[in-house]
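Below is a complete specimen:
___
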Amino acid sequence: MAESTGLNSVDLDHLIEKKAGMTVPEIFQCKGEIHFRKLEHEMLKAVAASQDDAIVSLGGGTPCYANNHELLNGNGIISIYLKGSVATLCERLSKSKTKRPLIAGLSENELGKFIAKHLFDRSYYYNQATYKINIDGKSLSAIVNEITDLLA
C-alpha cells in the first residue's frame, strides 16, 4: 500500500519495540499485556497527532483498548478493517505465531477457537472502522487495489 501511494509506512509494533527496547514478545513476558497496551495507546496517540500522512499497521487488539477505536475515528484519520474469515486468519497467523505472544503456544485447533472468540469479542471495535474490506481469497495486490479505489 505504501509503495502504491508513496506514503510512509508505520508499524505500530515496531514503534513500541523501539521505545521499549524490547520485542513485543519480550514486553509481554517481562512486563505483561497491560504494560504493552499502555505503550500501544501512547504510541497510537503520538502517530495520530503527527502531521505526517502515513499508512499505519496495527495489531488486532489495538482498537479494543484504551478507547483507541475513538482515536481511529479522529479528524483526518481513515481506518480500514481488513476483515477475514477464521480460516483465512488461521492460515495467515499460523505463519507468524512465534512473533505473537497471545497465540505462540496454541495448536492449530486452539488457534481457530482463539480467533473465532476474539473476532466475536472485538467485532464492535473492528466495525467502528471507516471502511471494511473482506480479504478472503484475495491476493495482496487485489486488496491494495481495492483500498486504492476506495480512497480515490
Q: What stands out?
A: The chain has one domain: 2-144. The chain has a mean pLDDT of 94. Residues 86 and 119 are 8 Å apart (CA to CA). The radius of gyration is 16 Å.
